[in-house]
Write a structure and sequence with these properties.
Elements lengths: L17 H10 L3 H8 L3 H11 L4 H13 L10 E2 L13 H9 L3 E6 L26 H16 L5 E5 L4 H10 L10 E5 L2 E3 L9 E3 L2 E2 L1 E3 L5 H7 L2 H8 L3 E6 L10 H9 L23 E2 L2 E2 L1
Parallel strand pairs: 2-3, 2-9, 3-4
Antiparallel strand pairs: 1-10, 5-8, 6-7, 10-11
Helix pairs in contact: 1-2, 5-10
């Protein structure tokens, strides 16, 4: 769960002509693409310039710097230390605080659902995958029914924000319509697209997805606040008194979406972000872990 504030965001590149695009490429180390653009037919030049206009200039500069800097830097293990671990069983005293916050409607659900189900052998958005072996319910159905039960328990109808991608947005909306939102108030379910970053090669040069289109890739979890802001949903949250988000991935059917005990502890600690983890099965399991590096949790 985390609490969001309206950050300030940068703007896309303003390119109104071929000359603008060539100047931008020349000023940002994109000589190969500059030469390529010069020799394209006019119609394709126009489409490629339009594609370039979708780039966020500040993010472009930052990401290109990261690519050129490289990541093959040896990490000094003495800088790393474990994070404090607190078991859920020790949080009982915070449950009533969390429950009261939930009753006041101050917490909403946010699901990141931009991925496709290809690794599950499923052709479609991952959230549409039938996860329950007997009932055949989809991941989205599991979450919807769980949110509905929480609403009945705490006496409020929760808001649900679902971050999709270009690849899943329309299919996800259609899936909810087909299933009539599983009885949820459709006025409290919002879909919004995650943002994208341009893709670079190791030399910091932009890559193409087609002969007249820049290659973009999803910007991941870190882009959620910008995506919410661009969709006008941070403003809506303020208007509706939503102060906290229960943030979870679409492929986590075991999630306790509105965990009053966990929320209460989050509030007591005056935290910006709190998270749950499970123990690794062994040192060789290929999953990320939380740690402190130079005193900061990462």
């Amino acid at each position: 769960m985390f609490m969001g504030q309206d950050p300030s965001f940068s703007c896309s590149v303003h390119l109104s002509s071929l000359d603008d695009a060539l100047s931008f490429l020349a000023a940002n180390g994109q000589e190969p693409l500059l030469q390529y653009l010069k020799h394209l037919p006019p119609a394709r030049q126009k489409r490629l310039v339009a594609s370039l206009a979708g780039i966020d200039l500040n993010e472009f500069s930052r990401m290109r710097h990261v690519v050129l800097q490289g990541s093959d830097v040896a990490l000094d293990l003495s800088r790393i230390e474990p994070v404090p671990v607190i078991s859920r069983d020790s949080l009982g005293e915070y449950e009533s605080v969390g429950e009261e916050t939930l009753r006041q409607g101050k917490c909403a659900a946010l699901t990141v659902a931009g991925g496709l189900g290809s690794r599950l052998g499923f052709d479609g958005p991952k959230g549409c995958f039938s996860i329950m072996p007997l009932s055949g319910k989809s991941l989205f159905a599991v979450f919807a029914e769980r949110i509905q039960r929480y609403g009945e328990r705490f006496g409020f109808t929760p808001y649900w924000f679902i971050m999709t991608s270009d690849a899943t947005h329309q299919q996800t909306q259609d899936f909810f319509e087909t299933h009539k939102f599983w009885g949820l108030d459709r006025q409290k379910v919002f879909f919004f697209r995650q943002g994208c970053f341009p893709v670079f090669d190791q030399a910091g040069h932009l890559l193409l997805a087609a002969e007249d289109r820049i290659c973009f890739a999803p910007n991941g979890h870190g882009g959620v606040f910008e995506a919410l802001a661009e969709a006008g949903l941070l403003s809506l949250m303020r208007e509706k008194g939503i102060e906290y988000l229960s943030y979870f991935q679409v492929d986590n059917p075991l999630v306790r979406i509105f965990d009053a005990r966990f929320l209460g502890y989050h509030l007591a600690e005056h935290a910006e972000i709190s998270t749950k983890v499970v123990w690794k099965r062994g040192p060789d399991e290929n999953v990320g872990v939380f740690a402190r590096v130079d005193g900061r949790t990462t």
